Amino acid sequence: MELEPDTAEIGQKVTEYEKFLNERLKVDLQKTLDSRDEIYAKMSEYLQLKTNIERMQEVDFPKGELRTKVDLGCNFYVQAKVPDVSKIFVAVGFGFYVEFTHSEALKFIDKKIEHLTEHAERLTKDSGRIKAHIRLVIEGLKELQGLQDGPEEQEFRDIWG
């Protein structure tokens, strides 16, 4: 003979699971996805720099100097003159810049992109695990509340599947 848990106890459990779902799992998922997006943005900047370096190697600059425009922010540009284009400064992290030759910079960028790709893959796996936990909690909530799979379930599978 099974004992039926009372409605107040079930309601309390449902509230606890919903709180865990909304205040922990969904927040963790958002942070993980935001971190991954930041990694992708950094990768994009390094790939753009790599393309620019490769183009600079193809062009022969007169007198070894480059005239360009620099964005100071808010689309406010000023003219700039680079006296020596044989070396460039690359942001290596933590606010530090290192002077590289073009070939050194390309090697560094390849290593950096490889590292960032691994980090993004880890974050993607983490987000998958968090999504699985969300799915598990939702299924537990359905079971506690005695809900059956309905048409909403199919929509959920399309979004999270």
Automatic annotation (TrEMBL):
A Gene Ontology biological process noted in the UniProt record is: negative regulation of transcription by RNA polymerase II
| GO CC annotations on file | chromatin; mediator complex
Q: Name one Pfam family in it.
A: Prefoldin
Q: Show which residues constitute the signal peptide.
A: none
Gene Ontology MF, one: transcription corepressor activity
Tell me the domain of life.
Answer: Eukaryota
Q: What PANTHER family does the entry give?
A: MEDIATOR OF RNA POLYMERASE II TRANSCRIPTION SUBUNIT 10, PROTEIN UXT
Protein family: Belongs to the UXT family.
Name the record gives this protein: Protein UXT
Q: What is the species of this protein?
A: Branchiostoma floridae (Florida lancelet)
